[in-house]
């Protein structure tokens, strides 16, 4: 007898931080942030299918070396959601990875957010948005933003969000390095630099970036980008200096390390210029991956398919 099987797919974008102002380290080990998140058009896809237990399968160009067990944030997201409603986490998660790992693009957080959305639908749960946001925050500082996409101001450790309107989509190039950087190590390096008095001046508040996003003027936005973690990322991965210099030489309006790095994000005047910049960056040999993407408009997208089996 044939049975109808439902599969839920969530396509979820990467993020960059247009501004990342890092405050002091809190007693809980996290740093107080003021950050402007911007979702970009580079996507992972998470498919949740019915199963008798929990499993994770990873495919796609950026899946090499990733754990398919409880070390994977998507696995933990399924367990946390199931615990929240008092059921067993019975789901097969297939994750198609296009977002580079440990890159400052919140790829793992995106997979966790997609898993929360997909499992809630697969298991027919009604989870209030506030409860879902709380589960996301428990999983990681960037997971709450990944549930929403678009542009947002993040405060607290990054989990308290306020949507930020962007008048126009922006054109970016993401240039990823061969290796990854550990987020805790980058924050620890910033603390070390500050304690030693060798840190760079702080980047300031988010209002100028929010105003530039509202104006739709990429030149204005380029002047206002900033990341307090950049000097720490550069200290741990000095080769990023060459990537940033190449992007500027090749005509980027502005460029910065995304989040804790090592991906660099470059702002271009328009989509065609971004495509040319991506090609130039790849040819420069200063990165292994350069992709033109649109910023500000990307959001998670959920689809449900029914298969006869
Ligand atoms: O929340 P998430 O798991 O992404 O954080 C990873 C690490 O990054 C934390 O353990 C902490 O070392 C650092 N972090 C921080 N302050 C934040 C966010 C992250 O120090 N606001």
TrEMBL record:
Q: Which residues form the active site?
A: 15, 142
Domain of life, source organism: Bacteria
In its keyword annotation, does this UniProt entry include Glycoprotein? Answer: no
Identify a single GO molecular function assigned to this protein.
4-(cytidine 5'-diphospho)-2-C-methyl-D-erythritol kinase activity
Which reaction does this chain catalyze? 4-CDP-2-C-methyl-D-erythritol + ATP = 4-CDP-2-C-methyl-D-erythritol 2-phosphate + ADP + H(+)
Q: Which residues form the GHMP kinase C-terminal domain?
A: 210-281
Which residues are in the GHMP kinase N-terminal domain? 72-150
Q: In which pathway does it act?
A: Isoprenoid biosynthesis; isopentenyl diphosphate biosynthesis via DXP pathway; isopentenyl diphosphate from 1-deoxy-D-xylulose 5-phosphate: step 3/6
- UniProt xrefs under Gene3D superfamilies: 3.30.230.10, GHMP kinase, C-terminal domain (3.30.70.890)
Write out the entry's keywords from A to Z: ATP-binding, Isoprene biosynthesis, Kinase, Nucleotide-binding, Transferase
> Where along the chain is ATP bound?
100-110
The UniProt similarity line reads:
Belongs to the GHMP kinase family. IspE subfamily.
Q: Which HAMAP family match?
A: IspE
Query: What does the UniProt record say this protein does?
Result: Catalyzes the phosphorylation of the position 2 hydroxy group of 4-diphosphocytidyl-2C-methyl-D-erythritol.
Task: Report the PANTHER family cross-referenced here.
Answer: 4-DIPHOSPHOCYTIDYL-2-C-METHYL-D-ERYTHRITOL KINASE, CHLOROPLASTIC
Protein name, entry field: 4-diphosphocytidyl-2-C-methyl-D-erythritol kinase
Organism expressing this protein natively: Jatrophihabitans lederbergiae
Q: Lineage in the entry?
A: Bacteria, Bacillati, Actinomycetota, Actinomycetes, Jatrophihabitantales
This protein's gene is called ispE
């Amino acid at each position: 007898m044939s049975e109808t099987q439902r599969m839920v797919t969530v396509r979820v974008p990467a993020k960059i931080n247009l501004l990342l102002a890092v405050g002091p380290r809190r007693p809980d080990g996290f740093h107080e942030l003021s950050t402007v998140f911007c979702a970009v058009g580079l996507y992972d896809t998470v498919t949740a299918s019915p199963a008798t237990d929990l499993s994770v399968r990873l495919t796609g160009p950026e899946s090499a070396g990733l754990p398919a067990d409880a070390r994977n944030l998507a696995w933990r997201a399924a367990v946390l959601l199931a615990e929240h409603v008092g059921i067993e986490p019975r789901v097969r998660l297939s994750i198609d990875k296009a977002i580079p790992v440990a890159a400052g693009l919140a790829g793992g957080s995106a997979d966790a957010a997609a898993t929360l959305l997909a499992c809630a639908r697969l298991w027919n749960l009604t989870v209030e948005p506030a409860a879902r946001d709380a589960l996301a925050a428990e999983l990681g500082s960037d997971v709450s933003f990944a549930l929403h996409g678009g542009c947002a101001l993040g405060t607290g450790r990054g989990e308290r969000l306020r949507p930020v309107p962007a008048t126009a989509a922006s054109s970016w190039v993401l240039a990823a390095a061969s290796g990854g950087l550990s987020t805790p190590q980058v924050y620890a390096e910033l603390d070390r630099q500050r304690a030693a008095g060798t840190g760079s001046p702080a980047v300031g508040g988010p209002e100028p970036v929010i105003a530039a996003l509202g104006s739709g003027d990429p030149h204005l936005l380029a002047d206002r980008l900033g990341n307090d973690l950049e000097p720490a990322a550069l200290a741990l991965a000095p080769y990023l200096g060459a990537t940033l210099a190449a992007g500027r030489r090749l005509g980027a309006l502005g460029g910065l390390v995304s989040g804790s790095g090592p991906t660099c994000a470059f702002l271009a005047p328009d989509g065609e210029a971004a495509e040319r910049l991506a090609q130039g960056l790849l040819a420069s040999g200063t990165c292994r991956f350069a992709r033109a993407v649109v910023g500000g408009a990307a959001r998670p997208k959920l689809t449900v398919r029914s298969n006869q089996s």
